[in-house]
Amino acid sequence: MSQHVAINIKTQAYHSMLGAHYTLHDCTAGYTHLTDEERAATRVLVTAGFRGATGAEMDELPNLALICCVGTGYEGIDVQAALARGIRVSHGAGVNAGAVADHAMALLLSAVRAIPHQDRLTRSGAWNYTETPRPLVSRKKMGIFGMGGIGAALARRAAAFDIEVSYHSRTPKTDLPYAYVASLRELAEASDYLVACVPGGPSTQHAVNAEVLEALGPKGYFFNVGRGSVVDTAALIAALQSGTIKGAGLDVFETEPDVPAELCALENVVLTPHMAGNAPEVQEMAADLIRENITAFNEGRALVSPVPEMRALTPAI
């Protein structure tokens, strides 16, 4: 009998790749359309960090036993509610690290070298006789906030650009060759580029605030490929408007998909619609990992990529 799987995200690639192997129920608009039999048969839910699942949503599927998150971040899943119900949770740890690191470097190059502006200028028929020279990207210092898989991949790419890397994270990574900085403010003060690669949640809420941006300084650039909640948006807009920092590149926003009009009006910020990790290769890897986790679950084995809160639990959970 085919495994019944609910999915509450819109990305059609996952619907197609998982639908080829399971009886897939599209729950992007909720669960009310499911019959009682479908609810009872559905033991797996596929979601994403920005969408997640609340305890009330888990209750919509009475026999739910596994939640699979397509990406690394899973802040939208109420893990404690899942634990209380005996539901196991996996995530796509590391599958999108390369794509997000690539995109972070693309934002950096675009912002520092003003590529969007130069593109518009060239298309208008103008040339560079009166353009202000843009600074070098290389021979600078990058501070990475969050040295997980994405941070480590970004550090390797930055090194290839002759950029000196240091970082701040919850704990030092003794296996990596980069300098650890004890506080985010100190990291910003020592950096030309500050890049946030951390997940969302209470521990990182508005970690990049007015004080951190002031420490980054008038020649500094801020980039965010983690979660929008990591930065105080009002403080960032004020810093960009006043020249407290030179510029920014953002792939994530606190109120996404709504982007503040003040950000859209600024020439010194490059904006993309939360698509850093969106690549066909990443989607294929994420779908494969979900299938591996479902297989492990069905066979009573430990999950291949459990979220950290699940790692200390017995395989029975």
UniProtKB/TrEMBL annotation:
<dbReference type="InterPro" id="IPR006139">
    <property type="entry name" value="D-isomer_2_OHA_DH_cat_dom"/>
</dbReference>
<protein>
    <submittedName>
        <fullName>2-hydroxyacid dehydrogenase</fullName>
    </submittedName>
</protein>
<dbReference type="Pfam" id="PF02826">
    <property type="entry name" value="2-Hacid_dh_C"/>
</dbReference>
<comment type="similarity">
    <text>Belongs to the D-isomer specific 2-hydroxyacid dehydrogenase family.</text>
</comment>
<dbReference type="InterPro" id="IPR029752">
    <property type="entry name" value="D-isomer_DH_CS1"/>
</dbReference>
<dbReference type="InterPro" id="IPR050223">
    <property type="entry name" value="D-isomer_2-hydroxyacid_DH"/>
</dbReference>
<feature type="domain" description="D-isomer specific 2-hydroxyacid dehydrogenase catalytic">
    <location>
        <begin position="35"/>
        <end position="307"/>
    </location>
</feature>
<keyword id="KW-0520">NAD</keyword>
<keyword id="KW-0560">Oxidoreductase</keyword>
<dbReference type="InterPro" id="IPR036291">
    <property type="entry name" value="NAD(P)-bd_dom_sf"/>
</dbReference>
<feature type="domain" description="D-isomer specific 2-hydroxyacid dehydrogenase NAD-binding">
    <location>
        <begin position="105"/>
        <end position="276"/>
    </location>
</feature>
<dbReference type="Pfam" id="PF00389">
    <property type="entry name" value="2-Hacid_dh"/>
</dbReference>
<dbReference type="InterPro" id="IPR006140">
    <property type="entry name" value="D-isomer_DH_NAD-bd"/>
</dbReference>
